[in-house]
Amino acid sequence: MACEEEALVAEEEMVTMGRLTLVKARILGSDVEHAPASHAPGEDGFVGTGAIEPPYDPRTLAELFEHASALRPNVDAYATNIDGFGHRLEPVIDFASEDAARKVKDALLIERAYRGDETDPSDDEVSASLATLSRAARAERARLDAFFEACCYDVSFIGLRRRTRQDLEVTGNAYWEVLRNGAGQIARFVFVPSYSVRLLPRDEMPVQVRERVRTSAIGLEDATSPRRLRRYVQVEGGPAVYFKQLGDPRVVSRKTGRVFATRDELLAADPTDDVANEMLHFIVPAPASPYGVPRWIGALLSVLGSREMEEVNLSYFSNKSVPPLAILVSGGRLADSSVPRIERFVDEQLKGKENFHKLLILEAETGPGTGENRAKIELRPLTDAQQKDGLFQLYDERNIDKVGATFRLPRILRGDGRESNRATADAALRFAEEQVFQPERDEFDHGMTQLLLNELGIRFWKFRSQAPIARDPERMTEMVERLVRVGVLTPEEGRHLAGDIFNREFRVIGDDWTKRPITLTLAGVQNGVQDLRGPVAGDLGTEAKRLLALRNELAAEEEKLAKRRLDLARRYLEEGTEVGNDNPR
Q: pTM for the complete prediction?
């Protein structure tokens, strides 16, 4: 049984090394003997499907990720910082803001112009639309919250995004199977491993595809455009399964990938068949392939070199060839039995960590006819010839930095905190957030808004990925407090900034005092005024002039008080001097 397991492990290692050889040959442009990708290990299931050959075997890249110590820290940093903090829904128009009526009026103007109507909406129409749109926005928000809670079978939406990001960074491709409900609306997403999917060529004839186009901040219109679509095929331990591109209106066979006019025609050809589901494809773009290519592929040789370096260092513990100590017997000749004993010692008794301190004993014989035993024993340490530490450590460190550079990640985000302090760590995190993570989030958010939310008919909300709290909460709190206190920000704006800092939504307060500077509110409270815009306070400009005059009066009083204190101090010093002259000590 043990022999069978060892043979199986050896066979798997041979297959893995064969795949790595293929990838390495393709990188180097070598003429190493290898079969086409359709006949490479793991590719046999795609023979006859018409799939396009990927530039690099995805299964090999996935296996290399499992064996390369330099890749996982970078990929995990991407998955955590880009997709691991969830999302929020931002309103296209905040109907509770003061300028909501103006934005709604502008949107209505655009909507009417889109239909060829040049008349301006009246104030009554704007007010009625504002109330109607506000109710519709609340209903959409509830619908979206329920959708993202139930859009995945066995993981959360955050978990789906993290798995997708890992696949995307390891192989350059990631896939979601899109399932629709009986009404034809998107209902669920299913993660599909990228190593099991291949692309088919784009169809020659374009297809009229219906899509929802945003015409204004609150308007979506159905439009059709011709597009050349493609299909996908998956092979994972069974027969091939075909998928169609998201938005493809055609009836595509799940078993064969053929296109039929109607579903009845498909079922008539094969009653066990059905319409193929849709596929959403994420890629790291490559200029010479419809497939994505991982961003670390340029450092592939560094990844392979570090792996082989680690294997060389590991083999030292089981295959070291220099013993730590030798016992030399001199004054004679080496015994005939010593030579085979040395060979057996090196081959059998020196390998393995249990024999790490094994001694080598050599025997000698005195010369014939001497009549005297002149042999002597000498202990000779051989530690100078032994390997003191791992080989190629500098080479491995440079390889790790090369891989990290392809991801554009600083060391501290890869788990290496050497030579880091508070200032350098903050600078590195800020660089990664601004130059790496946030652009990736923006690209994903745009796709989710355009492909998903528009397809769902969502008009009033945008998808926005949340970022980690990379700011110092104490400093940001102090800054917001000062800006609110001096009147640069209103309390409502300060609460909005606080929600952005802490990645949460604060309850909306509809009172008037949240919409004006806190200094004016406090001045009104001190003078018994409840609302500076009301009849008691009078005109806002008059109230502001009165506050400025009051400030000037306070400044004048403070100046008088300071002058009086200075006079008192001077008199005290003069009187003390006179007393000192009359009564010297």
A: 0.72
